[in-house]
Amino acid sequence: MISALQKAYEEEISLTGKEIIKQIIDNANIAEKEEVPMCQDTGFTVVFVELGQDVHIEGGSFEDAIYEGVRRGYTEGYLRKSIVRHPLDRVNTGDNTPAVVYYKLVPGDKLKIMVAPKGGGSENMSAIKMLKPAEGVEGVKQFVLDTVLAAGPNPCPPIIVGVGIGGTFEKAALLAKESLLRAVGKPNPSPELADLERELLISINKLGIGPQGLGGRITALAVHVEVFPTHIASLPVAVNINCHASRHKEIIL
Amino acid sequence: MLENISMTPIRLKTPVTDDIIKQLRIGQKVLINGFLYTGRDAAHAKLVALIDNGQDLPITLNGQIIYYAGPSPAKPGRIIGSVGPTTSGRMDLYAPKLIALGLKGMVGKGKRSPEVIKAIKQYNSVYFAAVGGAAALISKTVKQCEVVAYPELGPEAIYRLAVEDFPVIVVNDTQGGDLYEEGIKMYAATS
Fold it and tell me: What residues contact residue A96 under an 8 Å CB cut-off, 6+ apart?
């Protein structure tokens, strides 16, 4: 992440943009040195679990254990509690629980837990659309550009753009989110998709939004695309935007 | 016009007057000194409910600046946790009523509605952007912090922050200028 920001600092032509990227790098260094959050929005805890099918979990509910981990992490780590118990009555749960947990059953006897807290500002600017198959790759590109342009300064650019193409309505959104788990700028292993990622990144950075939306060439640091087979009638596209505070941690038990 | 903007920041001390606000132009770097009042969605809803009922507010808005932010908790021995700006657009429905009562500035991130931009012009106010996500760096400029209203809202309470050289950039000025519009126009590539 820091190396991506340093490269962005070199490439940005706007002086204000450069200064902002410098502030972001300085901020990350302060946060690391002083062990404080880089952003006050320490997010909704999103957890991806890969459970080996030979693993047997004993001693209570696995999901409760995850919630307890979130509770302790956010309380003992002085992280902000940003979750309300109901989307309409909006009372804070006080301990950042629950988490959003996704499970995948995989071969083997390992348990992999990946934690990716997601801030509200960039999440709010994400979007999904069910395109017509006839709109093809051009339709996909246009929707990604439209979403980033509409988001403008709100998701704290420079951003990382996660794109999910295919599957069903909800699968496309999940693909977009999963693509953000990749190391920043690591291309998709498929050469065609890697080309699409590169092309989208160039187009996004021509929009002129720039760091914090104040004008400049570095709007996105990376575009990550994931695809999945889809229905003969469908072309779902989801765009999940991540701010420059891309925070991920994984552990294998 | 943006090309001529100096990178040298201007120092501003709160409370601020109309004369000072009127001199600010989009793209200018400003260092705020004095006090900032934090306020997010929940606090704004409460303030505007009081205004609508003709009741007194728990803080004086005249000449003051509101910072759209909800800090993370302070670690022991620290003044405040990390405290970067939140998305200002969520406060757009409330902001014009506060501006009409003399609020001279707002600090946040992201675009404002036409209604807010109009109120900024009409009542001589200003909208500043702070760097979203630079929350640890920004927290260094906070020298004192106390909750002055709505402690029950936790991170959404109104905190009064004593700040020194709190760094912001002018986005919407009294002339109707909008840095988000001008910046993108200047840097969009045609080819």
Answer: A42, A45, A70, A71, A74, A79, A80, A81, A82, A83
* % of chain A with per-residue pLDDT over 70: 100
Do the chains contact at B137 and A39, CB–CB below 8 Å? Answer: no
pLDDT digits (tens, 9 = 90+) for B90-122: 999 999 999 999 999 999 999 999 999 999 999
A4-53 pLDDT per residue, tens: 999 999 999 999 999 999 999 999 999 999 999 999 999 999 999 999 99
Number of domains in chain B: 1
Q: How far apart are the C-alpha atoms of B103 and B82, rounded to whole Å?
A: 25
Contact B163, B35 (CB under 8 A): yes
Helix (H, G, I), strand (E, B) or coil at A142: helix
Going along chain A from its start, the domains and CATH numbers come out as 46-118 (no CATH), 120-246 (3.30.1330)
CB A180 within 8 A of CB A240: yes
**Cβ distance of B129 and A31 shorter than 8 Å:** no
Report the range of poorest mean pLDDT among A86-95, A189-198, B112-121, B170-179: A86-95
Q: How far is the alpha carbon of A145 from chain B, nearest alpha carbon, in Å? A: 13
- Nearest-by-CA chain B residue for A242: B133
Q: Which residues of A touch B84 (CB under 8 A)?
A: 39-41
CA A175 to chain B, closest CA, distance in angstroms equals 25
CATH number of the domain encompassing residue B40 = 3.20.130.10
Minimal-distance CA residue of chain B relative to A122: B87
CB contact under 8 A, A26 and B137: yes
What domain range includes position B75?
2-187
pLDDT in tens, B22-49: 999 999 999 999 999 999 999 999 999 9
Q: Is B111 in Cβ contact with A38 (below 8 Å)?
A: no
